[in-house]
Amino acid sequence: METQILVADDTGIASAARLLRQGALVAFPTETVYGLGGRADRVDSIQAIFAVKGRPSTDPLILHMPGPDLTQAVAGGWLAAPLPSLAIPLTKAFWPGPLTLILPRGPKVPPEMTAGRDTVAVRYPAHPGARKLLQAMNIPLAAPSANRFGRISPTDAEAVHTELGGLIPLVLDGGPCALGLESTVVNLVTPLPEILRPGAITAEAMAEVVGIPLRESCFVACMDESQIAPGQLASHYAPHTPVYLSIDPIRKFHPDAFHLLFQKPLGQVSTRTLFLEPGTDQQGLARELYRSLRQADAAGCKIILIDPVPEGKWSAALRDRLTRASSGNAHWDGVGWNLTPRRPS
Ligand code: TXA
Ligand code: MG
User: Fold this and answer.
1) What does R_g of the chain's alpha carbons equal in angstroms?
2) CATH at residue 153
3) Distance 146 CA to ligand 2 centre (A)
4) Are residues 97 and 187 both part of a single domain?
5) CA 175 to ligand 1 centroid distance, Å
6) DSSP helix/strand/coil, 42
C-alpha cells in the first residue's frame, strides 16, 4: 500500500474523513504525538489498528472526542452514567488538551477497543487539525500513538511515515507536535483518582482544580506484572539501540555510545552527542526528546547514554518515558559503566 502524506488543511482533512468513514485508518496530528485513527464504532477499524501497530489486543485504545461535553457523550452512548464527580471539573479546566480520563464505557464503544474492560479512556485534543478532523467525522476516533507497538511515539509526519509507511493509506501532516510527549492519563473510576501516565498536565495542576492530591501510580513502584495497569509495561517508547540512563551528569564519553546530554557539555565533546537545552519550563526538552531518540537510534552506535533528567515541570513525565525506553538497563555505577542489564527488583 502506498502511504500518502497530505497537509492538514481543508482538502487534506476532507480526504482523511472520507477514508475514515469507509473504515480505513489515517494518522493525524495532535498536540502531544501523532495518532493512528480509526472509527471508534467499527470493530473492523479497531482490529486494523491493533494489527497495523502490532499491539496486543489486551492494551486498550483512547477514544478521541469531537467535543468536550461529557454529558453529551453519555447521551450518545460513548460513556455511561454516573460520571465520576471529578470528570466535569477536570475537563472544564484542561480540555481541549493533553489530559486523558478513564471513565465508565458506554454501549456504543465496542469491547474490542477497551480489551473487554467496562472503562474507556477519553480525550479531546487541542491540535486544530485533530479537532477539525473529529468535527468533520462527528463520531469519536479510536487512536493510539502512530508507532509500532513498544517503539517511540512519532512527533512529526516523517516519523509516522518511518513507523507505518506502506501500512496505512494516509498521514495528515500538521507539523511538529507542540508538546512531544503523550497525554497525562488519569483513572477516575478508582475510589481515589490515580495518574496512570504522567504528562504535561501535572499532579499539582489537577490538585489545584479538584482540591485533593492525585496519586501517581508509577510502573517502577509496581513491577509485579499482574499489578500493573495496561500500557504500563516496563519496556515501551524504546529505540532499537539499547538505552542506558546515567545517575550522574555524563562527563566521560563512551567509545560505543551515542550521548544525549541535558547539561551543557564542558570542553571537547564526542561527535556522537546531542545536547538538549532543558530550558526553564522543560517544554523544549519534552518536545525534542523523541526526535532526539530517533536521531540517536539512527546513528548506529552500540548504546545510547542519557544524562539525568533535570528537575522541573516535566520531570515526572520525562523520567517515566526514559525509564521505559531503557527497560531496566544498567547505568553509571559510580566507578564505570555497568552495562549488564539491571532487572528491577
Ligand atoms: O497523547 C496521547 O494520549 C496520544 C495521542 C495520539 O492522543 N495517544 C496515546 O495512545 O498515547 P496510546 O494508545 O499509545 O496510549 C494510551 C494509554 C495506554 O497506556 C493504555 O494502556 C491506556 O492509555 N489506557 C487506555 N484505555 C485504558 C483503560 N480503560 N484503563 C486503563 N488504561 C487505559
Ligand atoms: Mg503509545
Assistant:
1) 20
2) 3.90.870.10
3) 7
4) yes
5) 22
6) coil
User: Whole-angstrom Cα distance, residue 152 to residue 181?
Assistant: 10
| Domain co-membership, 117 together with 264 | no
CA separation for the pair 176, 322 (Å, rounded):
20
Pairing of strands 243-245, 303-306: parallel
Please name the residue whose Cα sits nearest to atom 29 of ligand 1. Answer: 120
Residue to mutate, 100, 118, 233, ligand 1, most ligand atoms under 8 Å from C-beta: 100
Nearest protein CA to atom 17 of ligand 1, as residue: 231
* DSSP string covering 100-118: EEEEEBPTTS-GGGGTT-S
Count of domains in the chain?
A: 2
pLDDT in tens, 182-227: 999 999 999 999 999 999 999 999 999 999 999 887 544 344 444 4
How far is residue 144's CA from residue 237's CA, in Å, rounded to a whole number? Answer: 13
Which residues constitute the domain of residue 89? 4-216
Q: Is 185 in the pocket of ligand 1 (CB under 6 A)?
A: yes
Which tens digit of pLDDT belongs to each residue from 41-86?
999 999 999 999 999 999 999 999 999 999 999 999 999 999 999 9
pLDDT at 338 over 70: no
How many angstroms does the Cα of residue 61 sit away from the middle of ligand 2? 9
- CB 231 less than 6 A from any atom of ligand 1: yes
